[in-house]
Design a protein that fits this description.
By secondary structure, this protein is of the alpha+beta class. The protein has an 8-stranded antiparallel beta barrel. The protein is globular, with a radius of gyration of 16 Å. The longest helix is centred in the N-terminal third of the chain and has 9 residues.
Length: about 200
């Protein structure tokens, strides 16, 4: 099921506070370099402190990690983007994930806008600065448990976004941090080889 979800992941966008005149400008900010026609990866994460969570009692997210995998489509459809997200909720030990396809923003402010697989909601990503993004989840997003392959209806009550889980600042981190979100062995090897 996990492979199927990742195989289905193609289709929407991530958003930015700065104006971008081209997709190349947005890619430069998102990936931290000029990616040209190359395959590109970006990894962002954050673990919220006890103090932060105490001051935001309606935030259910304890940790979050986002992985963006991008490549040029060989059939000429242009650059493709796939987003993977892993979330740890306050009262649950296991991580939960969501995957979706993304498209570049068209308003000059968004980098990508992503549709979560199987009508699971939308996620936007705006560039905050050269090392941070803002992840927008205005209406929540459906997550799944890759470890047990539980049906969506069988997920625990705590496996959902809270009323204060709308915008997250995540910081760029080593690509190897996102290994759990890599979809295949080739991608995992590339993340491990990156400096």
């Amino acid at each position: 099921m996990r492979v199927l979800r990742r195989a289905l992941a193609f289709g929407f966008v991530l958003g930015l506070p700065a104006d971008f005149s081209t997709a190349a400008d947005a890619n430069l900010q998102l990936f931290g370099r000029d990616i040209g026609k190359e395959k590109a990866y970006a990894c962002y994460a954050r673990t919220y402190t006890k103090a932060h969570l105490a001051s935001h009692p309606d935030q259910n997210v304890r940790d979050m990690m986002v992985f963006v995998d991008s490549y040029e489509d060989e059939s000429g459809a242009g650059r493709q983007y796939v987003l993977g997200m892993s979330v740890n909720f306050r009262q649950l030990k296991r991580p939960y994930s969501a995957y979706g396809g993304c498209a570049t923003g068209t308003d000059g402010k968004q980098a990508l806008h992503c549709g979560i697989d199987c009508d699971g909601g939308t996620i936007g990503v705006r560039i905050k600065d050269k090392n941070s993004i803002l992840l927008d989840i205005p209406d929540g997003a459906r997550v799944s448990d890759d470890q047990s392959e539980e049906e969506l209806s069988d997920l625990p009550e705590g496996a959902k976004f809270g009323s204060d889980d709308k915008i997250f600042r995540l910081d760029r981190t080593a690509l190897s941090t996102c290994l759990p979100l890599a979809s295949d062995e080739e991608t995992k090897a590339a993340l491990l080889a990156a400096h």
